[in-house]
Every structure is written in structure tokens, then in C-alpha cells.
Write a structure and sequence with these properties.
The chain has 13 helices and 2 strands, in the order ααααααβαααααααβ. It has helices at 2-22, 25-33, 38-59, 66-92, 96-102, 106-117, 124-142, 152-175, 181-204, 214-239, 244-247, 253-264, 272-291; strands at 120-121, 295-296. Helix 3 (38-59) crosses helix 10 (214-239), helix 4 (66-92) crosses helix 9 (181-204) and helix 6 crosses helix 8 (152-175).
């Protein structure tokens, strides 16, 4: 029993650290976006992530069958090219603070996804939390932006990218029932990066090399090493120790860290609607993951 509690504690700690580091991703991304476009910034981020994962790729054989390779490829496509291109295009249209607060909807999105796709059933508290989180997101995205550089379209693209991320998380969790978090993370990021290496140069041209400042290169490296490879390893391993719906509350660290960086370091301004909306989102996420009782639905036998 003590071993089980220790594993859960370590799992929650891994997810909390991953979420905190993810909170730095928009901050580093905004720095790099001052000197290059979204597609090239995302490509460089994942190239740095693959470099960090090379030792694991060299020492861990995948051991996936054909169907599992297909699931991993779908997860990689959703979680890397699609999610990140949507997310950082949204960031280019809004502020770090707004983008980070919109990420506060993710715990509720994850809980809803678990209810529909992972055989969990939310109670009245869960559905009330969903309504509260939706109202908070609406306040941020539709309640006016006070000329602070944020836009409705940017905020909504962030939320759309989180819906895509839901399926990436659920597919990864499915694969980790039979394979290690290291294998799923390393080979998933590798597949997603290969997709970016094909699509980005064909669609947007070769990424810039000259004329990029050291500050931007350091931001890209930090995005790849800390906010991609490290976070995904920590998060995926954490999900092997705790249920996804319970880990969801720890995603609240991301909007907290991200919005603080935007306000304190980048000097961004949050209007009254954003503060109130962010409060709704965070309160709903905490309520959902600490008060709501979910139970597993019975699955029909596979014939």
C-alpha cells in the first residue's frame, strides 16, 4: 500500500513539474516568434527536442506492432504538427498571458474526453465545472481585449489546439498500457518531427539560419529541451502512475506560470475580463478534479 501511495505521489509530482515547464513554452515561443514565423519556430523547437531524446532513441527499441505504429503515427500527427502549429499561430495573434489562461480550460476538456472516450462518467459537479470553465473562456475570448495585443481569434485557436491535444493524450495513454513512457514519448516526438521536416520546408520554405539572435536560439533550445522532451517524458510517465482525469488538476500550473511570466517579464496587461475569466477557469478546474466523483462505465465485451 505504501508503495502504491509513493508511486501516486511521484506521478503527481512528475505531472506538476511537466505542467510548470509547459507554462514556460509560450514565453520562449513569443521570444522566437519575434525573429521567425510560426512554422519555422515549431520545427526548430522539435528538432532541439529530438536532439535531447537521441540517447533514449539509441537505447530503447520500440517493440510496436503494425497497429500500434499506426496509433502512434496518428497521435504524433495530432500532438505535434497539428496541435503546435494551431497553438503557436494562435499565440502569434494573442498575448502570452491570454494564451496561458486559455490553457486553463484543458483540465475540463480532459475530463470531458475521459467521460466520452475513456469510460468515465462525470457527476453533476463535473458538468457544473464544465459550464463554469466555458463561461470563463468566453469572458477572456469574447469579453474585450482592452487594446493589449490579444485577439479573439488567437484565444480561440489556443482552445482548438487543446481539443486536439486531448486525443493526443488519450492515444498516448492507450499505448502506455503496453509500452513504456520513454518509448511512446521518444518515438512519438521523432515521428511528429519527421512530419514537420517534410511539411514545413515544402509549404513555407527552408527555416532561417542566418540573422537569428543568440537570444532566439536559446529560447528555441529551451523550448525543445525543457518544454518539449522533458515535459512530455515527465507527463507520460506520470500518467502511468495516476489517472488522466486526476492528473488534470496539475495542468493548472501551466496557466499560472505562463500568465505570471507574461505579466511580470514581458510587461503584458490583463484586463478585468481576463482576470475574472481566468478565475472562473481555474476554480472550475480545481473543483472538477478535487470535488467531482467519476466512475468507470462498464465496457461491452469485445467479440
Amino acid at each position: 500500500m505504501a508503495v502504491l501511495r509513493t508511486g501516486r505521489a511521484a506521478g503527481f509530482a512528475a505531472c506538476a513539474l511537466a505542467s510548470s515547464l509547459w507554462g514556460c513554452g509560450f514565453f520562449f515561443g513569443k521570444i522566437a516568434l519575434r525573429e521567425m514565423g510560426v512554422p519555422h519556430m515549431v520545427l526548430y523547437r522539435f528538432l532541439f527536442a529530438v536532439i535531447a531524446l537521441l540517447p533514449l532513441l539509441a537505447t530503447h527499441r520500440p517493440g510496436l506492432n503494425r497497429r500500434e505504429w499506426g496509433v502512434l503515427a496518428v497521435a504524433a500527427f495530432l500532438g505535434i504538427p497539428l496541435q503546435f502549429l494551431l497553438q503557436f499561430y494562435g499565440l502569434s495573434l494573442t498575448t502570452v498571458s491570454h494564451a496561458s489562461l486559455m490553457v486553463g480550460t484543458m483540465p475540463v476538456i480532459l475530463a470531458v474526453g475521459a467521460a466520452f472516450f475513456a469510460h468515465e462518467r462525470m457527476d453533476a459537479v463535473g458538468w457544473t465545472s464544465l459550464a463554469g470553465s466555458t463561461c470563463g473562456a468566453a469572458l477572456i475570448a469574447l469579453g474585450g481585449h482592452e487594446g493589449n495585443g490579444a485577439t479573439k481569434s488567437g484565444d480561440l485557436l489556443i482552445v482548438l489546439s487543446l481539443v486536439v491535444a486531448l486525443f493526443w493524450i488519450l492515444l498516448n495513454k492507450q499505448l502506455m498500457e503496453r509500452h513504456s513512457a520513454v518509448v511512446v514519448t521518444a518515438y512519438g516526438i521523432l515521428l511528429g518531427t519527421l512530419m514537420l521536416m517534410v511539411w514545413v520546408p515544402l509549404r513555407y520554405g527552408m527555416p532561417p539560419v542566418h540573422g537569428i539572435s543568440l537570444k532566439a536560439w536559446l529560447a528555441l533550445a529551451a523550448s525543445g529541451f525543457l518544454c518539449t522532451s522533458t515535459t512530455t517524458l515527465l507527463w507520460n510517465w506520470g500518467l502511468t502512475q495516476v489517472p488522466a482525469s486526476e492528473a488534470g488538476v496539475l495542468l493548472n500550473m501551466e496557466p499560472l506560470v505562463g500568465s505570471l511570466l507574461g505579466v511580470l517579464v514581458l510587461g503584458e496587461h490583463l484586463g478585468a475580463n481576463a482576470w475574472v475569466g481566468g478565475g472562473f477557469i481555474l476554480a472550475a478546474a480545481v473543483t472538477l478534479t478535487t470535488r467531482s466523483k467519476t466512475r468507470e462505465r462498464e465496457q461491452m465485451p469485445v467479440t
